[in-house]
Amino acid sequence: MTFKGAVNAATGSRTIEWIARAGYPVNGLLHLLIAYIIVRIASGFSGEADQTGALATLAGQPGGQVSLWIVAFGMFALAMWRIAETILGLHPGEHSFAHLRESPLMNRLKAFGLALLYLALSFAAAQFALGVGRQGSERAEGLSARLMQTGGGKVVLVAVGVGVAAFGAYFVYKGASRKFLDDLTVPGGLLITVLGVCGHVAEGIVLFAAGASVIGASFLRDPSRATGLDAAVRALGETQHGPALLMIAAAGFAAYGLYSFALTRYSRM
């Protein structure tokens, strides 16, 4: 059996499929926690409105270590499915011979990008479970500062910023055009459609702003602005209508979180 054939056989397993689906409610929980943190920031409290802040919130709860390992496992399982999609194309579970079909390169690249994101979240959750999450966050900011000292490092940061901004723009397009409905096994319905549109558009706008903040930070040599999502949320809060915009962003992240719970049952695999 070839490597692609082995991957295809794995995606044909209902057990493996449902293990991968377990990542969706985990992702939904992280989005709801980020929404909660954004609401707190809008109300004048401190916090990190990104995955690090969400993981830190989990770590501070009773049984937090167990919850963090569940997050790490769920994100890793979802990442492995995205890697399978990178190899076989989208929705390999729907095709008995997915390893023999042609799949657009762009679809594989999108799957690979999501795989990297989920792996990063899995690794971060494991770090928090082991008690070194904050140190990892501080090292990331230190790495940004070091990259800013060289021309090649700036190119890397700008490339990362462009990638995040592009991903955000795609999310806005996917939500506004309702393309996300193509990822569902059901027509959608009013509730799922509203959650999907609001969630994709709101998160896409914030991600685009996060990418722009990384690009700007690389030229300003300010590593504190290269923290992506959290920097974008803080910048949003500093605008004239900051608190209101933050509440809208929080509602969007909460909507995407609830949409992720729906994906647990209705996502095409």
From TrEMBL:
Keywords associated with the record: Membrane, Transmembrane, Transmembrane helix
Membrane-spanning parts: 24-46, 66-90, 111-132, 152-173, 185-215, 244-263
Domain of life assignment: Bacteria
Natural source organism: Mycolicibacterium parafortuitum (Mycobacterium parafortuitum)
Ranges where the DUF1206 domain occurs: 22-87, 111-177, 199-266
Protein name: DUF1206 domain-containing protein
